[in-house]
Amino acid sequence: MTAAPPDIIGRDEARALGLKRFFTGKPCRRGHVAERGVSNLECMECSRGRSREWRAANLKKARERARERARKYRAANPKKARERARERARKYRAANLEKVREREREYGRKRRTTNPGRVKEVRRAWHAANLEKVREGARERARKYRAADPERARENRRRWRAANLELAREGERERILRYNKRQAAQRRAGRAGSELKRSRTGRLVIEGNH
Ligand SMILES: [Zn+2]
Predict the structure, then answer these.
(1) Cα of 70 to ligand 1 centre, how many Å?
(2) I want to staple 14 with a disulfide (CB 3.0 to 4.6 A). Which of 19, 53, 72, 117 is the partner?
(3) How far is the CA of 83 from the centre of ligand 1 (A)?
(4) How far does the centroid of ligand 1 lie from the alpha carbon of residue 95, in Å?
(5) CA 17 – ligand 1 centroid, Å
(6) Residue 92 included in any domain
(7) What is the residue range of 15's domain?
(8) Domain annotation covers residue 17
């Protein structure tokens, strides 16, 4: 990336304007044509080079300082820091999707062997808190399965029914009961509506056998 060179501005003029840097256009003794510090006359390119060298020679300390700076930033700007972290994670995930997924799968495998109880517990808690989602997911999978292979789905149902006859009959009875209840509720609602209409017109008629 090439940037336009800064405007020529002498040290005194820069100081008078309250600037921290000035620029003469003349090379430093190492040949950099760069801005210099108003307070210490140091060439910025030399300064960056010294920082890099120091960092390379003091990697551990440099990392500690960076961590400390980041910690202070997070403490002073918690919301912004969280947003930035999320954004970084999102970008990293998008750029390394396969790697991230493989790592997540690997993590899941490890957790299931090292702490199967905890994994099951978390899954149960999630299911309990998202029952509707879980049921909808199961319904959706079943729908897809039936659509993809209706003959096999029917055959599966037949086989399951034959192996679980009592349970299947119980389920059917329950469905019929639920159906009858719904029908009865609808009839009651219909009657209540017509009773209300009649009582509004002044004729109070109570229907039904109660
Ligand atoms: Zn320099």
Answers:
(1) 29
(2) 19
(3) 38
(4) 37
(5) 24
(6) no
(7) 1-57
(8) yes
